[in-house]
């Protein structure tokens, strides 16, 4: 019960161990080239918190469901 493997994506919020269901793609124009994407993972509860954190800084580019992100990055290969 509650067993989580190393494979399981976990929310990026501090102290949160919930499974990630969202991918937040972001870019800091001061340190990253425009096409570069950093990603944070978020559970349902922290999606809004993390996306507003990035949003107020103008870093947030995209919020996509984790499954969709995996599929599209796999297809990209
Ligand atoms: Zn969380």
From TrEMBL:
Domain of life of the source: Bacteria
Name of the molecule in the record: Acetone carboxylase
Lineage: Bacteria, Bacillati, Actinomycetota, Actinomycetes, Kitasatosporales
């Amino acid at each position: 019960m509650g067993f989580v493997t190393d494979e399981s994506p976990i929310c990026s919020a501090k102290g949160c161990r919930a499974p990630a269901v969202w991918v937040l793609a972001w870019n800091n124009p001061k340190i990253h080239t425009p096409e570069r994407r950093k990603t944070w993972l978020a559970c349902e509860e922290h999606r809004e918190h993390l996306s507003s954190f990035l949003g107020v800084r103008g870093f947030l580019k995209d919020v996509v469901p984790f499954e969709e992100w995996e599929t599209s990055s796999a297809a990209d290969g």
